[in-house]
Amino acid sequence: MPPRRRPAPDPQPNEAARLTDELRAAGLTKRTVARIIGRDPSLVSQFYTRHKGAAFVPALTRVLQAVQTAGITDPGELASIAAPHITRRATASGARARVRTKAVLVTPAGTGTGRAGAQAIASGSTRLRGLIGEAARQNLRLAFTVRLLKSGYVLASGSRTDSPGIRRDVVQHTDHTEERSYGSSATGGFDAGDFARRTDQCGGDVTAAIHQWLVETGRIHPGARILHLEIRTWRPR
């Protein structure tokens, strides 16, 4: 019989994966690391499987230093430390690669819109965190639309106790889900800074922050699940 071949040794993890391992050893999870760098958890997994993450090494290095030397563990604070050190990757021609986003932009006039579907919702709608943070920095107002199963709402559709209070701001779908909008320029909307703080308290999870507000204000049941989320911002007059 020919001798059995030994399995090839596992390749050495790249620097991004190594730094992530050290952060995990310090008590953070892959999901938390993803929130800190403002990306989807699947990208962090690709540090290990596809050797991605080189562009995040400077940011992860600063985050690890903050954890180990200053004892900082709050994801919001760590995200602020990481942000200045995150650069876009370069294309083959040397140009900066474009980042695919879903219309997350605050214009000079203060208007902005960001949407999160099922996949983004599952990872905390992290794309929307930057929009809320920038809106808070500019002292903007904020409104949002959520979609969930009709049974998830506490108040009847179109109820004046609920925002919007008028039927036209409620969209019903054939799959037994319903969209409701909360806040508008006509009613004054909400302070973006309040929702930025709520998001930080939820570890950067925008979905959880919105869900918490809806439960606290008696609008949805605690077990209800948000299926779609849209954030809108504007500058108050």
Describe the structure.
By secondary structure, the chain is an alpha+beta fold. It is 37% helix and 14% strand. Strands 1, 2, 3, 4, 5, 6 and 7 form a 7-stranded antiparallel β-sheet that branches. The longest helix is centred in the N-terminal third of the chain and has 14 residues, at 57-70. Mean pLDDT is 83; it is low at 99-104.
> Uncertain regions: pLDDT < 50 for 5+ in a row?
99-104
Sheet having the most strands: 7 strands, antiparallel
Content-based structural category? alpha+beta
**What is the string of SSEs from the N terminus onward?**
HHHHHEEHHEEEEHHE
Beta fraction = 5-15%
How would you summarize what this structure contains?
The chain is α+β, with helices and mostly antiparallel strands. It has nine helices and seven strands; from the N terminus they run αααααββααββββααβ. Strands 1, 2, 3, 4, 5, 6 and 7 form a seven-stranded antiparallel β-sheet that branches.
Index terms:
237 residues; alpha+beta; 7-stranded antiparallel sheet; 9 helices; 7 strands; 37% helix; 14% strand
